[in-house]
Design goal:
Blueprint lengths: L1 H10 L3 E6 L7 H9 L4 E6 L6 H10 L1
Parallel strand pairs: 1-2
Amino acid sequence: MMSFVRGSLDDADIILFVTDIFEQHDEDDVLQRLQKTDVPVILLINKIDLASEQDVADKIAYW
């Protein structure tokens, strides 16, 4: 499955990355892959209405 993901990142015109405000996964591997691509990346953070303004600001700063 990961080879499909890598191939998709190489062939994409744009990447829409959707994450949840409360995700606690190790996202370093995702960050490394996104930093290596020349494809424009749009970040969508879901469920921000359930979080505090500080949580949202922290997640934006992280990404």
